[in-house]
Every structure is written in structure tokens, then in C-alpha cells.
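Person: Please work through this fold.
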Amino acid sequence: MITVQDILEIPDLNLRLLAGGKSTSNPVRWVHITEVPDPTRWLRGGELLLTTGYGFVGPEEQQLTQLKQLIDHNISGLGFGTGFSFEKVPECLVRLADEYSFPLFEVPYHVPFIAITEAVASKIVNEQYALLQRSLAVHEKLTKIVLEEKGLEAILSTLSALVGCSAVLFDFHGVVLCEAAYRRHLGAELVADLWRHISDHRADRQDFRLAVDGVGTGVQVYPVVASHRIGAFLAVVKDSGDFSDYDRIILHHVVTVTALELVKKKAVAETEKRLAGDFFDELIASDLYEEEIARRLVFFGLEPEAEHLILLVDIDGLPGSGDGDRERGVLQDVKERLHWAVDEFMARRELLFISASRSDSVVVLVQPGREDGGEILATAGELQETIARMLPEVSVSIGIGRPHRPLVDLRQSYYEAHYAIKIRRLKDSGGVIASFDDLGSYGLLLGLQDTLSLEVFYDSVLGRLQEYDRQNSSDLVKSLACFLEANGHWGDAAEKLYVHRHTLRYRMKRVEEITGRSLDDSQDRMEFWLALKARELIEQSRKGTVPPQP
């Protein structure tokens, strides 16, 4: 950056400063020669004007008005050539310039203006060349950091050292990805306050400046665009002074390499998610042996010898918009944000886990460590509250399977979590937190796990009764279900079926005759009950409310 002082110090020009000594640090963008009374229409601000004074010829009041126009137009300074229209610079101009701290200097008669313009142009070119060289050096340094895979922390540390600043990198949702400082560290409260201000500008794709209490010089914020989307925000606070042109070039390079690093991290994360999804698919399909499950867990950073459980976060539903394509797009976006929210919550709890999206759910395999069942249940409640804050437009239910040490039993934990949600939803519309304790009688059926085994069990108990209903258009299975739901109270069951008690007694007698079982026998009644629950699970599976099972 060239200043008025740099021009005054050019050798052999003998330029003499007359006023505005406090403002000689004004930057000079260019040099412009003018002889018209009002040249401001051709100026953009930041120019150093050179004149022989021809445009100032006239009454003193007119001279002052003309100089005031130049000062108001934010030019850097004025060089007044003497020996042409004026033998010396008018005293009224010197007084006004001094009053406004405006640099005004005398250019001797023997000094041609072209000598000044050539010297300034040479300085600008040399400065730009030096800036370019320094910029290339910064670019090479940052590129080396990326190639050596040192990560975002090394990038921000380099930025802080080169610029002399504190820097915080937020992701799109306000989570601090990393931060660095040169001399002044930003406290947690100030970082939180920064995000509150930045969140109001999240839709903007241009950099912007913030005025934040506690930060005297202000905050410069740069959106980091990765894969055509804003992936992060870089907030930079200069330790002292304002950002120079060199600082801004460094920031530009940092934003670029940060975007590259985020794209790389996203590619790695998507690969890990795909591998995790494949692992869950094979685990639930019972396609993996104990040794292979152990190998996969080690790959994901978990301990095969520890207990693990499945936590299932299931979307209850989204309001329909009537537009099929738009609904699919909204659902996909919600699923991505839900998966991100679950991962972020689990990471902050410092639990070892892996996760993957399946259908409208996020499946999480958790290594609970020392957390007991009550603590896991409380964690699920906190997770549900966190999701409600981050995704207020969607409701989720959370199912928790039992912890298992044998790795092949992790499939069992998945079905426990899955059916716990389904059973609770029979009573509640959604937003439930369910565990193995909510399964009741269904817990006995989960040992069968797959739909085929449930059908075999159902057919062995109620198959003949269902066939009788089909051939005779009767409702014996439904009547039996109502009778058991009413705990054997004839009046309540008959009222629910809209039949007379004697009719119900006749139907229950036919049930006993066809099945060969007695409703007075507690074991037979339990098998009837379990068979009816098995039918509910089978019907849910056939309706597509549960994932296909082997």
C-alpha cells in the first residue's frame, strides 16, 4: 500500500508538505492530474490529485469551496504546482487543509508532474509484484499443509501466525470445527456470541463484517463454499489494527484451502457412512460371523470385547406438501440433517459409536461403557430434545435395544429397539422413547426375529382357526382377540363386538373345538395371546412399516 508519505519521500522531487501532517498515512490508489474546478465526477476516492492551480483561480471563497469538495470526496491528498497560476499555494487553502487534516503539499516549478506519476506507478508495480510473490509463498505453504494432510487446525494456526489474528471455523449449524489464536484467545462466551451474529447471515454467500461487543476492531466473516453449498463460516478477529491487502490475500487462500479440506473430509465421511450402512445391512441380515463383526468393529474404532447395543432413531412422519418430488427432496434433506444431528450429539457425549441411515431411521451401534440402562434412557431423552431443537419440523421416536456381549446377538438388539418403537406406537401416536421393557409379551417373540418364523408360530396355534374363518366368513379370530383384550370379561368383549354374550360364548366354544385348546388353561391362553401378537407383527411387516427381514 502506497501512502502520501511515501510520495513525499521520493528522492530528488523536493516536495514540501504544507498541511495535514497527521494524515500522510492516507493510502494512494492512483495519481490523477486535473485543472478543472470540480473533477470529482471522474474520481472514485483514494486518488492523489496534482494541479497547477488553474481551476482555483478566483475569489478566496470559491477556492475554499473547491477544496472542500475534494476533501469531501475522500481523495488522499493534493499536490499544488507553483510557478504557473500561483507563485505560492494560497494561504486560505493551507488553513482549510490543516483544519481538516488534509495532506496538501507544494510541487516546485522545476518538477514535472510526470516525474511524480512515473515514480508512483513504479512503486505501485513493485509493490504489487512483491505482494504477488508473498501471495505465492503463502499459497505454497497452505497447499503443502493440505497435501501433507495436517488438517484444519494447521491451516487456521498458519492463518493466525501470518495475519496476527484469532480465527474460529464454524460449520453451517454453528458447531466449532476448530479455532486458533495468535496473541488474544477468544473466550467461549465471545465465540457463542459470534455465532449468534453469524447465524443471521447464513443465507448470504458474500463475506461480511460484524461489530461485536468485546471485539474492538470488528470481525471479518467468510462463508466457505464446498460442493456448491456453504459448508462453514470462517470468523477472523485481528489482534490490532485493520486488515491489510496482504492479510486479505492470505484470507482468500485460507478460505480456498479450507473448502478443499472440507470437501475431502466430506468424501471421507460419506465413504465411512457407506461402509457403516453396509455393515448394518449385513449385521441385521445375519450375514456376518462373530469374527467378521469383531474385525468390522475394530475398523470403526470400537472394542469387540465390550458390550454393545442398538439405538434406533425413527422419523414419525413429515407433513405432506402434495408435491411428490418436493416431498422426496424435503425428506432426503431431513434425513441428512437428522443423521448429522445424531452424530454430533453422540460425539459430544464422548460415546464410542457408529451410525448409518436406513429407510427413515438412523441406526446407532453404541458402546455404552459404564453407562447403565437408566443413563442410556436419559441419554435417549436428551437426544430427542436436541433433535427437536435442531429439526423442529419433524418428530422422532427412539428405540433402545438391550446391551449384548456376543457380537452375533447385536441383530437381536436391533429388533428389540425396532419393535419397542412399534409396540409403543400402538398406544401412542409418536415421539416415544421405548426400550426392551416396553415389549412385554412381544419380547418372547423376538427370539424368532424373522417373519417366516413368526408365521410358523402363528399357524401352529391359530392356523386352523383362520382357515375356518376364511371358508365360513366368520370372525372367530377377531372374537378371540377381543375376549383376551377384555381379560375374559364376557360383557366388555361382547359390547366391543356388538354381539350378545351368548353369541360370544358360542364362538369361544367353537374356538376351543377347532384349535383343540382350552381357554380355561393358562398356558393355552398365553399361546393364544402370543400368536395374536405375532400376527400384529406380521401384518406390520407386510404393510411395509418395518424393514424387510430375512
About this structure: The radius of gyration is 39 Å. Residues 451-542 form a domain with the Arc Repressor Mutant, subunit A fold (CATH 1.10.10.2840).
